[in-house]
Write a structure and sequence with these properties.
This protein is mainly alpha-helical. The protein has 10 helices and 3 strands.
């Protein structure tokens, strides 16, 4: 059923990438670890983002398939929760949401001495300079403006076309999930 749901999302939203957080396959859940939830997703094609854990998973999978009654240890399954899992349908390397978040966090540390308020203010100001004033925004749209501004600042996005799409995204995201996905694809 999950495979069918992923297929629907892939087709409807033209997605090329899915990402799972460790809490979805065992982090903080002894039952999830014991049941081997990690392997449920692995069988669907998800792999750890961390390269070392991906190699470990591949080795474990070979053991599971070659040794009767072999089960990964609790310790190994717990180790897998140190990385998100991904399912990619494209050879293109895209940044995951967690990677973008890490880049923004690093930007706050390096550029703004961990002063988030200052980082937000400067980022929003810089985005408005590039894109123009967005006009009257709802609270949800203002939140999107903040998020978009941080992405633009952290990833150093300068393309006028991408800035234009991002400005449209600010207004569309709270209302239209389909258009939001379309714009994200055009931007990234």
């Amino acid at each position: 059923m999950l495979a069918q749901l992923l297929r629907v999302y892939k087709q409807v939203f033209d997605l090329s990438y899915f990402e799972l957080e460790p809490s979805q396959y065992g982090e903080g859940s002894p039952e999830g670890i014991k049941t081997g939830a990690f392997w449920f997703y692995y069988k669907l094609g998800f792999r750890p983002q961390d390269k070392k854990l991906r190699r470990l998973a591949d080795l474990e999978w070979k053991k599971i398939n070659s040794k009767n009654n072999y089960r990964s240890s609790y310790k190994t399954l717990t180790k897998f929760t140190e990385s998100n899992m991904e399912l990619s349908f494209s050879e293109e390397v895209t940044l995951s949401a967690s990677e973008i978040s890490e880049i923004i966090t690093a930007m706050f540390a390096e550029k703004f001495s961990n002063d988030r308020a200052k980082g937000v203010k400067v980022s929003v100001g810089n985005f408005i300079q590039k894109a123009g004033k967005p006009g009257k925004l709802t609270e949800d749209q203002r939140n999107v403006l903040t998020d978009i501004s941080l992405v633009v600042e952290a990833l150093k996005i300068k393309s006028p076309q991408k800035i234009e799409f991002l400005m449209e995204l600010i207004k569309v995201k709270p209302k239209d999930l389909y258009r939001t996905q379309e714009l994200w694809r055009r931007i990234f």
